[in-house]
């Protein structure tokens, strides 16, 4: 799968010498999830980000991206890489901006230097916004939210100010050689992903997608691994089409999707609006789902927001694996269901994605230890539990009939 480009193993040679436990991302493997952490210019520090890393990995995130945009970026990233057993991704342009007054001051060499700097630090995969081209910018004019990718918008501003082509595109072969040297994987950024339902599946998005397909082939010629990033905000009925089109345009390279969010009206609950789309796009071929937290569109996620996002996306990825009939995907579900029917509460808690929360909810009304073997919960009580009634029915059917 890796040799054919349908899977990647993001494992920088530097990180491999530390704590990295390599893993694979691809359509033939279980659906993976990513958690985004990182500081902003407004808030957060090294300790806070390490706590987020621990929380994300503890609850099952397969990779973590450091999207720091504030101060001490190198210090935070080096601490994260040193502490992480999972692959770490970045968006290099975020740190490029920290070294200049404005984006127009960046030179192509500045961009190459920062990519190499992060590769030397041990970053396992990088989002490179090489697919947004100067000729695509007029295509966003009819959009409501224009360009919602942070990195994509910065590259767009650079192109407009200089009236030149995207330097990440014109210097792409040089980027490939840097990544090859450290075995860093591409995560080709979808700069023109739709940022609302209205903007989905438009010419801007699909023009860039075609270019990302071309860039995938070019990276493969350099023996560099590639996954391709995807939307975004997509109406639910368009989600299968999006997944299939990416696989066609990008030659089967793994699809790495943000959500997608299937409605725009639920700020504070976008871990739910996006997990709905994530489960469907996972079913139809997305290899890794980038989580969304309750703070999406509202602010920088805190540690509990990270937990909520990871849990929502573990559910989505697991549902996708069941829908794709992965071998053994449903085993845990069946084991939990058997424990539920047997009123084995402690085993139910242990098998759940979030044992602490499951136990807490149960114990709010029935905290005593003897309720852990009770044949009811506080919802139905001892008389109305359907599973208890079903057990009685089974016993009646099995008992011999007495004739008088």
> What's the end-to-end separation, in Å?
70 Å
Rg over alpha carbons: 24 Å
Q: Considering DSSP H and I runs of 4 or more, what fraction of the residues is helical?
A: 40-55%
- What is the helix tally? 16
**Main β-sheet, in a few words?**
8 strands, parallel, barrel
Whole-number average pLDDT? 96
Strand content: 5-15%
Instruction: Give the structural class.
Output: alpha/beta
Widest beta sheet: strand line-up: 3-4-5-6-7-8-9-10
Q: What is the H/E string?
A: EHEEHEHEHHEHHHEHEHEHEHHHHH
Quick overview of this protein structure:
With 404 residues, the protein is an alpha/beta fold. The chain has helices spanning 13-16, 46-58, 73-83, 92-97, 108-121, 150-162, 167-170, 172-182, 203-221, 239-249, 270-283, 303-323, 331-341, 345-351, 355-363, 386-398; strands spanning 7-8, 25-26, 32-37, 63-66, 88-90, 125-128, 185-188, 226-230, 255-258, 288-290.
Secondary structure topology:
Layout: E1 7-8, H1 13-16, E2 25-26, E3 32-37, H2 46-58, E4 63-66, H3 73-83, E5 88-90, H4 92-97, H5 108-121, E6 125-128, H6 150-162, H7 167-170, H8 172-182, E7 185-188, H9 203-221, E8 226-230, H10 239-249, E9 255-258, H11 270-283, E10 288-290, H12 303-323, H13 331-341, H14 345-351, H15 355-363, H16 386-398
Parallel strand pairs: 3-4, 3-10, 4-5, 5-6, 6-7, 7-8, 8-9, 9-10
Antiparallel strand pairs: 1-2
């Amino acid at each position: 799968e890796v040799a054919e480009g349908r899977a990647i193993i993001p494992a920088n040679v530097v990180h491999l010498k530390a704590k990295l436990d390599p893993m694979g991302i691809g359509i033939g493997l279980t659906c993976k999830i990513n958690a985004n952490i990182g500081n902003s210019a407004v808030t957060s520090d090294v300790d806070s980000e390490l706590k987020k890393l621990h929380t994300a990995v503890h609850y099952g995130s397969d990779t973590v991206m450091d999207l720091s945009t504030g101060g001490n970026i190198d210090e935070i990233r080096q601490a994260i890489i040193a502490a992480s057993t999972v692959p770490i991704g970045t968006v290099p342009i975020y740190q490029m901006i920290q070294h200049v007054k404005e984006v127009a001051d960046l030179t192509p060499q500045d961009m190459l230097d920062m990519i190499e700097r992060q590769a030397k630090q041990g970053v396992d995969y990088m989002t490179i916004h090489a697919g947004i081209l100067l000729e695509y910018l007029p295509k966003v004019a009819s959009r409501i939210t224009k360009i919602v990718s942070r990195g994509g918008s910065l590259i767009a501003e650079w192109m407009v100010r200089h009236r030149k082509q995207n330097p990440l595109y014109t210097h792409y072969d040089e980027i490939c050689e840097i990544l090859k040297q450290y075995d860093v994987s591409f995560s080709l950024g979808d700069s023109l992903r739709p940022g609302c339902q209205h903007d989905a599946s438009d010419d801007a998005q699909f023009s860039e997608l075609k270019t990302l397909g071309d860039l995938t082939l070019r990276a493969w010629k350099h023996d560099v691994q590639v996954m391709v990033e995807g939307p975004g905000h997509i109406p639910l009925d368009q989600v299968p089409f999006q997944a299939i089109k990416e696989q066609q345009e990008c030659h089967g390279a793994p699809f790495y999707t943000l959500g997608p969010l299937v409605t725009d009206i639920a700020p504070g609950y976008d871990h739910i609006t996006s997990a709905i789309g994530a489960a469907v796009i996972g079913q139809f071929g997305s290899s890794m789902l980038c989580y969304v937290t309750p703070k999406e569109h509202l602010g920088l996620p805190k540690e509990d927001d990270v937990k909520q996002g990871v849990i929502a996306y573990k559910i989505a990825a697991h549902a996708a694996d069941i829908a794709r009939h992965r071998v053994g995907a449903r085993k845990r579900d069946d084991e939990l269901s058997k424990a539920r029917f047997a009123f084995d509460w402690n085993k139910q808690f242990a098998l759940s994605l979030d044992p602490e929360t499951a136990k807490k909810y149960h114990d709010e009304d029935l905290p005593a230890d003897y309720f852990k073997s009770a044949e009811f919960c506080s919802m139905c009580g001892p008389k109305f539990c359907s599973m208890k009634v079903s057990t009685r029915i089974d016993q009646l059917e099995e008992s011999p009939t007495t004739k008088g």
